[in-house]
Design goal:
The structure holds three protein chains of three kinds.
Chain A (H helix, E strand, L loop, with lengths): L3 H20 L3 H29 L6 H31 L23 H9 L2
Helix pairs in contact in A: 1-2, 2-3
Chain B lengths: L14 H22 L3 H21 L3 H25 L15 H23 L14 H11 L1 H22 L4 H24 L1
Chain C lengths: L2 H22 L7 H23 L5 E5 L11 E5 L1 H24 L6 H20 L3 H19 L6 H32 L4 H9 L6 H15 L8 H4 L5 H10 L1 H11 L1 H5 L2 H24 L3 H21 L3 H29 L4 H4 L2 E2 L1 H4 L1 H14 L6 H17 L8 H30 L4 E2 L8 H28 L9 H29 L15 H16 L11 H6 L3 H5 L4 H49 L4 H23 L3
Parallel strand pairs in C: 3-4
Antiparallel strand pairs in C: 1-2
Helix pairs in contact in C: 1-2, 1-4, 2-3, 2-4, 3-4, 3-10, 3-15, 3-21, 4-5, 4-11, 5-6, 6-7, 6-8, 8-11, 8-13, 10-11, 10-15, 11-14, 11-15, 13-14, 13-20, 14-15, 14-19, 14-20, 15-18, 15-19, 15-21, 15-23, 18-20, 18-21, 19-20, 19-21, 19-22, 20-22
The chains are: A mainly alpha, B mainly alpha, C mainly alpha.
Chain lengths: 126, 203, 664
C-alpha cells in the first residue's frame, strides 16, 4: 500500500482537529478536537511502524508501543480535562472558552500607570 | 525506500488501497462534520464514526491489537466520558447557534495553511514509498505483546503510575468543595464571574 | 600648657560651645547662656595668654600633618606672629562683648539657642582664620564664616528683607570666593605648599611665576569678604540681621578676615605692581563712595555699615601702600569703636522703637533715655571721625602717614601712584566721615519734637558692654602707636605732622559744615511730621529691631531712604543725595548686568528644555506607547486567539525552514 494514503489522511485529520481546537467555543468540543489530533498522530505512528517493521531490520515495534501509550495518556487526559471543565463550569456557570478571559487587559486601563488593572486582576483571580 | 518501487503502479491501486481510501474518506468526512456541527451531542456521535473509521484503518494496516484497543478505549470509554461531560455541563440538546467562537476564520486559515504545508511535505517526501502488507501481520497481539513486555516494560509500568495519578487528580478536581472551604470560596467565585461578565459587557 | 596647646584651644573652645549649644538648646535651656558666653570668654583669656607669651617676638610655628593629601600637602598648622596674637585678642574681646550683649538683646527670642551657637561658631571660625598657618585650613574658617553669616543675617527670617539680605550676603561673598579658591591653588602650585611661611619664603626668593594673576584672583575673594568695591553691596543689606551680629561681622570677624588675609600675604601682593595699584584704586573708590552713601542713609545701622566699608577702605589703602602695620592698627582700633557704635545703635533703636534717623530727629530727650549709649556713642563717633586723642585718630593718621610716605617716594615696596590715590581719597574720606558722623550724632541725639517714649532702663548686660568697649575707643590709639611697632614689622606708626594737621583740619571742617547745614534744615523738621515706631516697644530689643526693619519700607518707601527735608545730608549732597541713598544704584547695575542676563538665559534654557528637549522625550515616549496600545489590544484573554497566533507562527516558521532546507 502506498504510504502516502495513511500519512495524508493523518495530516488531514490533524488539521481538522486543529480547526476544532481553534474554532470551537464549548470546552468539551475542544477536548474532542484534541482527541482527533491525537488519533491523527496515532495513525501516523501505526503506518510508519508497519512500513518500517518490513523495511528495516529491528524496530522494537516502537510505533505501536507508543500508540498504546498515547491512547492511555489520551484517556488520562480526557479524564483530567473533563474534571477541569466540570470544575470551571461549577465555578463560573459556563464552559465557553472565550468567556474565560481573566488574563485579559482591563478595558478601562488606558494609561500604563493607572492602578485599576492590578486591582481588577486581583479581584478576578479570587 | 525504493524497494520494489517499479512493481507498484501509482494508477493501479490494489484492493486494500481502495478500501483504505474509502474508509479514509468516511473518517475524514465524519471528522469534518464533528468539528463543524452545531449540535453538540451530534458532534460526539460523529466523533464515534471517526474513531471507528480509524480502527478500521488500523485493521487495514494489519495492526489488529491497536484497532481493538482503539475501539475499546476510544469508542467505548472516551466518547462516553465526553457525553457525560456534555450532560453535566448542561449542554443544550439540539442546534446551538453559538457553537463556534468568533475565532472561526482565523482557525480556518491556520488549519488550511497547516494542512497544505503538511500534505505538501509528506506527499513530497513519501511519494515513492510503499508499505509491504504481505506476510505476517505487523501488529498482531502476539507481536505487540512480545514487544511491549520485552522492550517496553519500564515505560509501561511508569504509565500505570501516570494513570493512577490522573485518576486521583480527576477525583480531586471533580469533587465538590467541602462546606468549610466553600464558605469563602463561593463569593470569590461569584466575584470572578461578575468581573468576567463585566468585562464581557464592556467589550 | 605650651603656647601651642593654648593656641589650639582658642578656636576649639567656641566651637565646642557651639556644638554643645546646638545639642542642648532645646533640652536644657538653662545652659544656653553660660554655654554661649563662657567658652568665648575663656577663648579671650587664652588669647590674652597667647599674646603675652608671644610678646611680639618671633612667630610661633607649629604643624602636624594628619594624612597625606596628594601632591601639595595640607597641614594643620599654626602661625602666630604679632598680628595674629593681637587680632585674636580683638576677635575674642568683641565676640565676648557681643555674646554678653546678646543675652540682653535677644532676651525673649525663641531662637536664641541656635543664634548663640552660630555666633560661637562664627567666632571659632575667625579664630581659625587668624591663627592658621595653612591656607586650606584658613579657607575652612573663611567659608564657615560665610555660611554662619548667611544664617545670622537671616535671623529675622520672617521679614523679606532679612531673607533677601542673607541670600545676597552669601552669594556675593561666594562670587568672590570662587576666584579666591583658584588663586589659592595657583599660589600653592607655584610655592609647592599651602604653608604660609613656605609661601612667603617662595615669594622672598622670587619663585612666584604668576604674581599678578594670583594676586588679582585672591583680591576678588578679599573684596567679597571685606566688602570692597565692587563686591561691597551685601554689607549694607546685611543690616537686616540683629544688631549684635552686625557688630560681630563688621567689627572683628568677617570683614576683618579679608584685610587680615592680605596683611598676612602682603609680600605676594607686593610682588605685583599691578595688583597694588588695583588695590589702591579699589580702596579709594570704596572709601569715597561709601562715605558719600553713608551721608545719605536714613537707617542708623546702614550709616554705620557704609562707614565700615569706608574704614575697610582705609585698611586696604594702607595695604596698597605696603604698610600692613598701619592696616592692622586701624583694624584693631576700628574693631573696638565700630563694635561700640553698633551695640550703642542697638540700644538706641530699642529705646526709640525705630531705626530711622528721620524719626529720631523728631524725638527730643532721646539722649536722656539712654545716657550710656549717648556718651559711649559720642566717644565712638569722635574716634570714627579721627579727632585726637581718640583711637581712630592715631590709626587713621598712621594710614595717611604711610600713604604720604609712599607718595613722596621714600620707599621701594609700593608704587608712588598708589600712594597718591590712597592719600587723596583718604583725605576726602576724612572730611566726609566727620560729616556723616556729625550728622548721625545730631539727628539721633539733638532731635526736637515730641518726647521720646520711656521704656525704663536698658538691660545691664547691654549697657556695661558699651562702657567696656568705650575704654579702648578712647585710649587705645594713644597708648598703642608706640607699643605696636614692636609687635608688627617695626615701622613707625606715629602720626606725622602734615597729615595730622590736614586730616584733623578736614574732619573739623566736615563736622562744622554739617552742623551749619543742620542748623538751617532742622527748622523744617517740625513742619513735616514723620516717623513710625515698632508695634511692641516694650518687647525685647531683638523684636523691636525686627519690627523697625520690617516697617521701614512701608513707612518711607525704601529700606535706605526717607523723604526728609530736614536732613542735613540732603542739603550737603544736593543732587547726589538720591543716588547716594541707594548706593549709587550699584544694585541696579548688577541687576542689569548679571541678574537679568542670567534670568534671560534661564528662561531660554527653560524654553529649550520644555519645548525642544521635552519634545524628543515625549516623542520617544509616544511611539512605545502606541506600540504598547496595539499590543495591549491583542491581549484579549481569549486563549484560542493566542493559540491561533502561535500555530500560525509555527506554520510560517516550518515552511520557512523547509524552503531553506530544500534550497528553494
Amino acid at each position: 500500500m502506498h504510504l502516502v494514503y495513511p500519512v495524508v489522511l493523518s495530516a488531514l485529520l490533524f488539521c481538522t482537529g486543529l480547526y476544532g481546537v481553534l474554532a470551537r467555543r464549548n470546552a468539551i468540543l475542544v477536548l474532542m478536537s484534541v482527541e482527533l489530533m491525537l488519533n491523527a498522530v496515532n495513525l501516523n505512528l501505526v503506518a510508519f511502524d508497519v512500513w518500517l517493521s518490513k523495511a528495516a531490520a529491528e524496530t522494537l515495534h516502537s510505533g505501536q508501543a507508543l500508540t498504546l501509550f498515547t491512547i492511555a495518556i489520551a484517556a488520562a487526559e480526557i479524564g483530567i480535562g473533563l474534571a477541569i471543565v466540570l470544575a470551571v463550569h461549577r465555578n463560573r456557570g459556563t464552559s465557553d472558552i472565550d468567556r474565560l478571559r481573566d488574563t485579559a487587559e482591563g478595558p478601562e486601563s488606558d494609561g500604563p500607570d493607572s492602578g485599576a488593572p492590578a486591582a481588577e486582576k486581583a479581584e478576578a483571580t479570587t | 525506500m525504493s524497494l520494489a518501487a517499479p512493481t507498484h503502479g501509482f494508477l493501479s491501486p490494489t484492493g486494500v488501497e481502495i478500501a483504505f481510501l474509502l474508509v479514509g474518506l468516511v473518517t475524514f468526512g465524519a471528522a469534518l462534520v464533528s468539528v463543524t456541527t452545531r449540535q453538540l451531542v451530534h458532534a460526539a456521535l460523529w466523533l464515534v464514526v471517526t474513531l471507528g473509521g480509524l480502527a478500521v484503518e488500523y485493521l487495514l494496516l494489519t495492526a489488529e491489537f491497536i484497532a481493538w484497543v482503539q475501539v475499546l478505549i476510544y469508542v467505548g470509554s472516551v466518547v462516553v466520558l465526553l457525553l457525560f461531560g456534555l450532560m453535566l455541563t448542561k449542554a443544550p440538546i439540539g442546534r446551538s447557534p453559538d457553537a463556534d467562537s468568533g475565532n472561526r476564520w482565523a482557525a480556518l486559515t491556520v488549519a488550511v495553511a497547516a494542512a497544505a504545508a503538511l500534505v505538501w511535505v509528506v506527499v513530497d517526501a513519501f511519494r515513492a514509498t510503499w508499505i509491504d502488507l504481505d506476510g505476517a501481520a505487523a501488529g498482531s497481539t502476539k507481536v505487540t505483546g512480545e514487544s511491549l513486555f520485552q522492550h517496553w516494560v519500564l515505560p509501561f509500568e511508569a504509565l500505570s503510575v501516570l494513570l493512577l495519578a490522573a485518576l486521583v487528580g480527576a477525583i480531586v478536581l471533580s469533587r465538590k468543595a467541602k462546606a468549610d472551604a466553600a464558605g469563602p470560596e463561593v463569593p470569590g467565585a461569584r466575584d470572578g464571574q461578575a468581573a468576567a461578565e463585566r468585562a464581557e459587557g464592556a467589550r | 600648657m605650651t603656647t601651642t596647646t593654648l593656641a589650639v584651644l582658642v578656636p576649639l573652645l567656641p566651637f565646642l560651645g557651639a556644638a554643645a549649644g546646638l545639642l542642648l538648646g532645646r533640652t536644657a535651656p538653662g545652659f544656653v547662656r553660660p554655654l554661649a558666653v563662657l567658652p568665648t570668654l575663656a577663648a579671650l583669656l587664652l588669647a590674652v595668654l597667647v599674646a603675652v607669651r608671644q610678646g611680639g617676638g618671633d612667630a610661633i610655628d607649629s604643624a602636624t600633618e594628619l594624612t597625606p593629601t596628594g601632591s601639595v600637602p595640607i597641614e594643620l598648622a599654626l602661625h602666630i606672629d604679632g598680628f595674629a596674637a593681637l587680632v585674636a585678642l580683638l576677635v575674642g574681646a568683641v565676640a565676648t562683648c557681643v555674646q554678653i550683649y546678646s543675652t540682653g538683646y535677644l532676651r525673649d527670642d525663641p531662637r536664641y539657642p541656635s543664634y548663640a551657637a552660630l555666633v560661637s561658631l562664627f567666632t571659632s571660625a575667625m579664630f581659625l582664620v587668624v591663627y592658621s598657618g595653612d591656607l586650606i585650613v584658613l579657607l575652612v574658617g573663611w567659608e564657615v564664616m560665610g555660611i554662619c553669616s548667611y544664617f545670622l543675617v537671616g535671623h529675622y527670617w520672617e521679614t523679606p528683607e532679612a531673607r533677601a539680605a542673607s541670600l545676597k550676603a552669601f552669594l556675593v561673598t561666594k562670587l568672590g570666593d570662587v576666584p579666591f579658591l583658584i588663586g589659592l591653588f595657583a599660589l600653592a602650585t607655584d610655592a609647592g605648599s599651602f604653608r604660609i611661611t613656605r609661601v612667603l619664603g617662595t615669594v622672598a626668593s622670587g619663585g612666584l611665576d604668576h604674581p599678578t594673576l594670583i594676586a588679582l584672583l585672591l583680591l576678588a575673594g578679599v573684596a567679597g569678604k571685606s566688602a570692597q568695591f565692587p563686591l561691597h553691596t551685601w554689607l549694607p543689606d546685611a543690616m537686616a540681621g540683629p544688631t549684635p551680629v552686625s557688630a560681630l561681622i563688621h567689627a572683628a570677624t568677617m570683614v576683618a578676615a579679608g584685610v587680615y588675609f592680605v596683611a598676612r600675604l602682603l609680600p605676594v601682593f607686593q610682588a605685583s605692581t599691578a595688583a597694588m595699584v588695583v588695590l589702591a584704586f579699589m580702596a579709594a573708590v570704596t572709601m569715597a563712595g561709601s562715605a558719600l552713601a553713608a551721608l545719605a542713609q536714613d537707617d542708623i545701622k546702614r550709616v554705620l555699615a557704609y562707614s565700615t566699608i569706608g574704614q575697610l577702605g582705609y585698611m586696604t589703602g594702607a595695604l596698597a601702600v605696603g604698610d600692613r602695620g598701619a592696616a592692622v592698627f586701624h583694624l584693631l582700633s576700628h574693631g573696638a569703636f565700630k563694635a561700640l557704635l553698633f551695640l550703642a545703635a542697638g540700644v538706641i533703636i530699642h529705646a526709640a522703637g525705630t531705626n530711622s534717623l528721620a524719626a529720631m530727629s523728631r524725638m527730643s530727650r532721646l539722649r536722656d533715655r539712654v545716657p550710656d549709649a549717648y556718651w559711649t556713642m559720642t566717644v565712638a563717633l569722635l574716634a570714627l571721625a579721627a579727632i585726637p586723642p581718640f583711637s581712630g585718630f592715631f590709626s587713621k593718621e598712621s594710614v595717611l602717614g604711610a600713604a604720604e610716605h609712599v607718595a613722596t617716594g621714600h620707599t621701594e615696596h609700593a608704587p608712588g601712584g598708589a600712594g597718591w590715590i590712597v592719600l587723596l581719597a583718604g583725605l576726602l574720606t576724612a572730611l566726609l566721615t566727620a560729616a556723616y558722623a556729625t550728622r548721625l550724632w545730631l539727628l539721633a541725639f539733638r532731635g526736637r519734637g515730641t518726647e521720646a517714649p520711656d521704656h525704663g532702663r536698658q538691660p545691664l548686660t547691654m549697657t556695661v558692654v558699651l562702657w567696656v568697649l568705650a575704654v579702648p575707643s578712647l585710649a587705645f590709639g594713644g597708648l598703642a602707636f608706640r607699643l605696636l611697632p614692636d609687635w608688627f614689622d617695626g615701622g613707625s606708626l606715629a602720626p606725622t605732622l602734615t597729615t595730622s594737621v590736614l586730616g584733623t583740619g578736614l574732619a573739623l571742617v566736615g563736622g562744622l559744615v554739617t552742623y551749619g547745614a543742620w542748623q538751617r534744615t532742622t527748622a523744617l523738621a517740625a513742619r513735616t511730621p514723620m516717623g513710625a515706631v515698632a508695634a511692641h516697644p516694650e518687647a525685647d530689643a531683638g523684636l523691636v529691631e525686627a519690627e523697625a526693619i520690617a516697617s521701614h519700607r512701608p513707612a518711607y518707601g525704601d529700606v535706605a531712604y526717607a523723604p526728609d527735608p530736614a536732613d542735613p545730608g540732603r542739603l550737603l549732597l544736593g543732587p547726589l543725595h538720591r543716588p547716594a541713598a541707594s548706593g549709587f544704584h550699584l544694585d541696579a547695575v548688577y541687576a542689569a548686568l548679571f541678574v537679568r542676563p542670567v534670568q534671560a538665559g534661564a528662561s531660554l534654557v527653560r524654553f529649550l528644555d520644555r519645548e525642544v528637549v521635552d519634545t524628543y522625550v515625549r516623542g520617544a515616549a509616544a511611539l512605545p506607547r502606541l506600540l504598547g496600545a496595539a499590543v495591549r489590544r491583542a491581549q484579549t484573554g481569549n486563549v484560542q486567539t493566542y493559540v491561533s497566533a502561535l500555530l500560525a507562527g509555527t506554520v510560517v516558521l516550518a515552511v520557512a525552514v523547509l524552503l531553506v532546507a530544500t534550497g528553494a
